Amino acid sequence: MAAHDANLSLGRRMKAPAATRTRHLRKWGLPVETLVLGLTLALWIVMALTTSTFLTANNLVNILRQVSIDSIIAFGVLFPILIRGIDLSVGSVVALSGVVCATLLTAGLPIPLAIGVTLLLGVAIGSLNAFAVYRLGIPAFIITLAGLQAFRGGAFLVSDGTSVFGLPKALSTFARAEWLGIPSLFWSMLVIGLVLHFILSRTRTGRYMVAMGSNHESARRAGINIKRIVFFAYIISSVTACIAGMLLMARMSIGSPTAGVAYELNAIAAAVVGGASLFGGRGSVLGTFIGALLFATIANAANLLGIDSFWQMVATGVLIAAVVYVDNLHKRRQSGVK
């Protein structure tokens, strides 16, 4: 009974992340997510004034298509981060899921069945990662780093080292379609984002994830099912990576074993820049989307301006370091540490 009461009390405290952000807003002027959004809008304004092609319909649609796939992966990665974990395998899962789905389709399986089997693959991968973390006690960094290598190798084995062609035209038609002038990929991302936002902000599971990331021992003592939360977080991460892999496959009209290289780093960067803490307990779907939009804008701007991609990598690294530094200042100010 006492554990139940503590559980309810902890759940109530997790219902009000807005209060914490409001205190940050009053003390520092703006939370990290708002600062990143302001930086993104500033970059849009600069690009609109310096180039004639940035605000064209074709370029904006390209940005939306790219940010859609990046955001879906980042949404999933956010879940392990919230519980003080990490998932470095998602880029390879993107490649493996695309190759597996493409192989099934070329073998004659109906599209819904091929998609269903691929999603089950995501559930299996996420369960394997969670089992290794929770049961075997392997650090998440290590087991998902191993997965990064293993699943990439699996993608090459399944495809026999080559891209898989001959996909149904319905897939490319969907990936290139626009509804109300907005790409279908963006609508797909929006639906996924809304579902995951609801889970994090309106369900007990979401509040428990934040509680676990904030204080693992207190969450355990409050009676939270740690095993269920760990499995849920890693399954969400892998399944969203599989969805992104299939969408990327549809967009490119091939299943490529080289797809998704370094996507895990982009996803983690988007989550962190969007306000998630690598120490767990804080992060949001909206903030993650804002982070992904900033990086998609930087990539698009560099392409339009003819800037070397190496400089883009430098800018991304500096930006991540700056945001993490500001985040640490927030925490130090809040705790009274100088």
TrEMBL record:
The keyword Membrane applies. It is found in: Cell inner membrane. It comes from the Bacteria. The keyword Membrane applies. The chain crosses the membrane at residues 35-57, 63-83, 90-107, 113-134, 141-159, 179-200, 229-249, 261-279, 286-304, 310-329. InterPro entries: ABC_transp_permease. It is a multi-pass membrane protein. It holds the Pfam family BPD_transp_2. Keywords: Cell membrane, Membrane, Transmembrane, Transmembrane helix. Belongs to the binding-protein-dependent transport system permease family. AraH/RbsC subfamily. This is Monosaccharide-transporting ATPase. It comes from Salinicola rhizosphaerae.
